[in-house]
Amino acid sequence: MRRDIPPLAEVRRLTQKKRDAWWTVLLVDPVATPLVRQTAMRTRITPNQITWGALLLGLVSAACFTQGDWRWLIAGAVVYHLSFILDCMDGKVARLTGQGSVFGAWLDYIFDRIRVMACAVALMGGQYHRTGNTFYIWLAAGVVALDGLRYINSLEIFKTRHTMRKQIKSRIRAARRAEDTAEVAFMEDLLRDNPEADIEQDLQQDRADDAQSTAGTPVLVAVPAPKRRKKSDVIDLQREFRSRFPGYLRARSYLLRHRVRTHLISGIEFQMGVFIVGPLFDAVIPVTVVSAVLLLVFELAIVYKLLLSTRDFARTLDSFENTKTPAAA
């Protein structure tokens, strides 16, 4: 039985993320999204069944890697990419058909980690058996460790940012409760939703204010909020980072217009380098090492950005203590 599924353009809007890894945007979505539409329209396959299929293909890829020969490496790389396409499809089918679940999200995460571990051990084990080079054993441990580090770090950064936002919202709501005149928004969200916004004048004013201000200057600004009846307090927790790297905002806006996130080497690109690029060119060691170094560089950049953000967070909290709010005046 055929389902009533919208046209492909609407499916793209409904299922593709506003920002994603460049590998996914360029090499996966053009294939996965049409397949998602056909799958939802012509079959009753569930997202969890697709997740299982992605795991099984990942294990087939691992089996190919164990053979060690270059021809098997190519086969393993191709199958791994197919596995990743399915891995991207399960979430899209869930969003399109409304079949998403908390358990499905957990299953997808766990199966991803199993696939990476299995392929890392198989790939490096096959190359060790072929060459006798013990460095491959260390590479297997390194790949598994870095994959885990990436996702643990991502989760902890998310929790830290969520905590900062929660505390700021609590302070503002307490300060504004008497008059109920303001809502809370965060500059990063506004820029993500509208990457083409002309904010250069605001940033220049911010830099001028920074040059004349002390460390205790508030980073709370009030701007009109589109489609809202109330004034919106906009909190900028990336102000110090952008002041140090003024070209970041333009690069970020350009990438977001093309749905590409600024974290150019994430866990996805790391996996693709290790399990696709390296095997395809029979250059497992150099590609894995380069991918690992780039992943660490981008992870450190994210940690540094978080550090600067916590300073903006501290200054914002200080501003509530040092500046009288309208409600308290």
From TrEMBL:
Pfam families on file: CDP-OH_P_transf
Membrane-spanning segments: 50-66, 135-152, 260-281, 287-307
InterPro entries: CDP-OH_P_trans (IPR000462), CDP-OH_PTrfase_TM_dom (IPR043130), CDP_ALCOHOL_P_TRANSF_CS (IPR048254)
UniProt keyword list: Membrane, Transferase, Transmembrane, Transmembrane helix
EC number(s) given by UniProt: 2.7.8.-
Keyword Transferase attributed: yes
Single GO MF descriptor: transferase activity
UniProt record similarity statement: Belongs to the CDP-alcohol phosphatidyltransferase class-I family.
Protein name stated in the entry: CDP-alcohol phosphatidyltransferase family protein
Source taxonomy: Bacteria, Bacillati, Actinomycetota, Actinomycetes, Kitasatosporales
